[in-house]
């Protein structure tokens, strides 16, 4: 099959729509279930490249959760702590510790559940039963992977009343080195971004502190590859083998950093005892729990804690988690890695990063104010590597 007809393009009025191979070869995909749409395939093909590259350059299996052609997170298959399992709503999944791939997706989905609602999933390896069981109970549009166990495929085909989108991709497929796209009837052509992101890219350390531990190397590789497939401008925070905050598509670098930092902060706060100890009212499902937690941690916390409303959400009224308490908790966080798809033009990005526990930074360098950015890192004893390579993606 070298062509697949789609229902419509980005919007229902954009017809006709299809995906096809101009060179006449077969498509490198097989649709095992459902009928994916135009945006589904954009997510699928971008997300597959991401997980494939992270596995190739870290050695870990990888999963990502995509929405609107940007990752909400990407993670490798490290086991989750009991605290993180509860925060990610997977503490009841049997066999989780025995499936690195399920651990990777549990992390990716659990990082930013608000953004991941209705996600597209990519897995670097064959989908197993445990991973499929996690996916089966989440609101999701579809999945792409190089294969599926018989039991996993059975579980996924039953999702969404049998309409869940399941795509298999040829793991050995390599695209042509030149890629094309059209805008307003005009064809653009460029060489594919085949730039390799591995530990060699992090050798040019420009700060006084030169010590970059192996865990931080892995986290920076994950952050940078995530950025390679994120709509620019973009910044990514990562720790413990996963992207914990992605700031995508902002016109200003500092707005990317603030957005990503806020998401990273929420990821940490969701693992605090006050959040893990929330006692929800009977019948509250996972999506609603997530929304309630988000409000509980926000400036609008009275919307769920107020005298007239708290019983709708909780069996026991929680104590407020004050901004002062949150700030004090976040001040104890260290060891977070930060990647940027282009240089930091001002040191304000480093100042904001410090508030989210950043200890390690990777960015291209090349700003006329590089010295001020380096000085800011030195002030906080951060390690910063200049990669020399911009990673814009549009």
What kind of assembly state do the chains in view correspond to? single chain
Derived from helix and strand composition plus strand pairing, the structural class reads alpha/beta
Instruction: Return Rg in Å.
Output: 21 Å
CATH topology of the largest domain: Cytidine Deaminase, domain 2
- Largest sheet geometry: 6 strands, mixed
Specify the CATH class of the largest domain. Answer: Alpha Beta
> What would CATH call the homologous superfamily of the largest domain?
AICAR transformylase, duplication domain
Question: In percent terms, what proportion of residues is strand?
Answer: 15-25%
Q: Give helix and strand order, one letter per element, not per position.
A: EEEHEEHHHEHEHEEEHEEHHHHHHEHEHE
Widest sheet: strand ordering: 3-8-7-6-4-5
Q: How are the secondary structure elements laid out?
A:
Elements: E1 3-6, E2 17-20, E3 29-33, H1 38-58, E4 62-67, E5 70-76, H2 82-87, H3 100-111, H4 113-116, E6 119-123, H5 129-136, E7 140-145, H6 150-157, E8 165-169, E9 178-183, E10 186-191, H7 214-228, E11 234-239, E12 242-248, H8 253-269, H9 273-276, H10 286-296, H11 302-305, H12 310-313, H13 323-330, E13 336-340, H14 348-354, E14 358-363, H15 370-379, E15 383-386
Parallel strand pairs: 6-7, 7-8, 13-14, 14-15
Antiparallel strand pairs: 1-2, 3-8, 4-5, 4-6, 9-10, 11-12, 11-13
Helix pairs in contact: 1-7, 3-5, 5-6, 8-14
